[in-house]
What we know:
The protein has helices at residues 11-24, 55-60, 99-111, 156-161, 182-193, 207-221, 224-227, 267-273, 280-287, 295-303, and strands spanning 2-5, 31-35, 40-43, 65-67, 75-77, 81-88, 116-119, 123-126, 129-130, 132-139, 142-150, 234-240, 244-251, 254-261. The protein contains ten helices and 14 strands. Strand 12 and strand 13 (244-251) form a beta hairpin. It has 304 residues and is an alpha+beta fold. It has a five-stranded mixed β-sheet with strand order 1-2-6-11-10. It has a three-stranded mixed β-sheet with strand order 4-3-5. The chain folds into two domains: 2-227, Bira Bifunctional Protein, Domain 2 (BirA Bifunctional Protein, domain 2, 2-Layer Sandwich); 234-303, Enolase-like, domain 1 (2-Layer Sandwich), CATH 3.30.390.
Amino acid sequence: MLTIINTNTNxxxxxxxxxxxxxxxxxxxxxxxxxxxxxxxxxxxxxxPFTEINGSFTYKNNIPIIRRSTNEGAIYHDSGNxxxxxxxxxxxxxxxxxxxxLEPVVKVLQGMGLNAILKNKKxxxxxxxxxxxxxxxxxxxxxxxxxxxxxxxKLHYNKLIGIKKTSGLVNIKKHFKQEMTxxxxxxxxxxxxxxxEVGNKVYELDNLDFxxxxxxxxxxxxxxxxxxxxxxxxxxxKEYDNxxxxxxxxxxxxxxxxxxxxxxxxxxxxxxxRNIQFTEVELEKALSEFESIDxxxxxxxxxx
Length: 304
């Protein structure tokens, strides 16, 4: 098993690395990836970032929303998480076999003095506390197991963002009897999973690898069309300032139809909003000509 030493905390880049190794790096070796992300919300492929996430909180706290390629629910990340991924071509692996990947993780955590156990085939616990999320995916002959360990995350952010999936999760740090920073945990975790052979098992990305990873990041994970524009058609009905009921039909991130119910003449407002991108920037441009509208208040009403 090989590993890639990745100290980059840009979640867009890290998603690209993971997908590149999983789908496009065609080597016979299995891979172990370990990384951390700066604060972000990563949503499932079919989720709606406009309605399923507290956009006001993420916007005000500069937390980017990024869409991944699989269908699991939204997950908040910060530097208190350790992400790990096993990528394998093992032909004998049974689909959905979480124990194959998680038993080594349990063994490593137990070696750190933690009472780690596996419940319900894929739930990782330390004592009575669930401390991780796990999911799997397949592509051609490959299987990827992605895990997220909660070491010292700001767990209260999940509720503020509107994420329910992490309810009940507890940070591993609670169970350490001695000082253990997230950085220390990461180094030890990798060392033990590779049985002390890290130096001999590093795969060095070359210039072509980096070029393909950056192309994937730029075209997908750092692209508004992917993160927001992939959203299916949906309806928003909001009341503005006790004066107007605004109804928007949004498809692929663009307002395709608008109606504004009001005693005022709102035809020009409807025309200004129709067929524009549903973003703060485009809404501000469209609304700036209307002196009777508080642009900032209207944007907050429509988007959050």
